[in-house]
Amino acid sequence: MGKGLIDYMNDCSTKDDLYKSLLPRTRTIHMNMYDEDISGTIETILSLTKNSLEQHQQPVNILIRTKSKSPISLKFPDHGLYSSVAAHQNSNRIAIMLNLLQTIQECLTSSTVKTNRDLFYSNVELYGKQVTVDRWINTIAQSLELTNARDNLNVIPAQKGLVFTTQEIRILTKGSEERINPYHSSLIPHMDQNSLCQIVPGRNATTRLLVLEKEAVYNQLVNDVQYSPSYYDDCIIVTGKGYPDFLTRLFLHKLQVSTTAIERWEIYTDADPYGVDIAMKYVQNVKEPCRCNKLVHRGVFLFQLMSNQRQQVQYLPMTQRDTAVATRILQRVTESNLPNMTTVQELQRQIFLQKKAEMNVMGRETYLGQK
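That's the DNA topoisomerase (ATP-hydrolyzing) sequence above. Prediction below.
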């Protein structure tokens, strides 16, 4: 015969002890490698969760290891004090994680590959934002101690960045070769951490690489080079269409480590806090090993616009949000071991003058030079 309330009260000396004794027993599931096969590990985690909830009516607590000391704890269903407050947040997080695990297992067992964008659009209502999918994919990979989530989970980043080159670029990945043809604008192809990039030598011994924040400026420069190829030196022009995606940064990183033909590495962004932040994402992104520290932020800077007497520049006022973003970036930069003084001065000018401008106002000679 089961214990009654009077029995619990007799066994517990305090109210807190009584509260804890009445809580249902929770099954703890550690999210780590149970099997050498990733698909088998994911199947084990899903099976343990399903059996606990369906067959034993027992709450689960999934512990996900992270880089920090304390793991992420996902409890479902929530119970106890303040459970109604955390119920929606926890249920949504565990639904996202289990849904991703189920999709990853299907990809692994069927040997198919999906992009992060495919996953997002498969259930927009659940994920809400694309960044949610990216963040949880990385969390799952870290918990399973995978060196590369994109190569091991059959989930690859969607193509976003564009590249234009005056020389042929060959990308070798797992024995297969993909070519980026000269004088054509192309999506940056899929590659992995072990890919190699080779530049077929052109008419010049050295090459110039330009990274541009905006696609509109990229298209303008590409048209100039296409219609006057003999007028310009060999160059590679890249745009991440705003904040860079993983493939764009990986492509630049592979060019940096695979070839010595590129002599000048330059990046141009808007003269605003977000432009500075975008440049830093390319050059010193600490969250990914694929940063390109050869890139030099050449502008567009406020002092360049102010010293340009040949054309009138339309400045825009900094909003309160812009100022707050600039202040946070400035604090982060100055607290680093080797602060970039050019970046520091640009942010200080923007905050002091309360002005910003777009890179479109500069002429093509700023980027490609004049002959």
